[in-house]
Request: fold
Amino acid sequence: MESLEIVKNAIKDRVNIDAIKYEDNLNDIGLDSLDLVEAMLKIEEVLNVEFSSDEIVDLKTVRDLVNLIESKK
Reply:
């Protein structure tokens, strides 16, 4: 599964939004810090990788999240 699709699925599990775009700001689409952590846990489970809290705290956009995932592959 493509990284963007994994991110979209994890975000949609946390917030009620139909369309998620690559350039979306995570706060603007309703993803608060707790939702982000929960989404990251789901992504870790799907990809069998781990993210540090330092990596997660710097995420601002969907693009940032996708880039982080790509760096772990």
Observations:
- The chain has a mean pLDDT of 91.
